[in-house]
Automatic annotation (TrEMBL):
Organism: Rhodosorus marinus
Membrane topology note: Peripheral membrane protein
Compartmental location: Mitochondrion inner membrane
A cellular-component GO term for this protein: mitochondrial inner membrane
Record protein name field: Cytochrome b-c1 complex subunit 6
Superkingdom: Eukaryota
GO biological process: mitochondrial electron transport, ubiquinol to cytochrome c
One Pfam family named in its UniProt record: UCR_hinge
Annotated Ubiquinol-cytochrome C reductase hinge domain residues: 9-68
Main location as per UniProt: mitochondrion
Length: 70
């Protein structure tokens, strides 16, 4: 009896494929991280830039993900 292969989570595959399309958002997030790396107050954060990056990924990947749910 052959071992069954683990299923591939296509959501992760689609998200990875969308990352190059969201370069502007990723660069903004990385720039923010660099700006706040020396923050000693603990109040600085890059939540907005992080969410913008993932919003771009989601917008790109969602049609591909849901196209296979019919």
């Amino acid at each position: 009896m052959a071992e069954e292969e683990e299923p591939v989570d296509m959501k992760e595959v689609y998200e990875e494929g969308c990352k190059p399309k969201c370069g502007k958002e990723l660069r903004a997030y990385e720039a923010c991280q660099k700006r706040i790396e020396d923050d000693t107050t603990g109040e600085a954060h890059c939540t907005g830039q992080y969410l913008d990056f993932w919003k771009c990924i989601d917008k790109c990947a969602a049609p591909k993900i849901f196209a296979n749910t019919r």
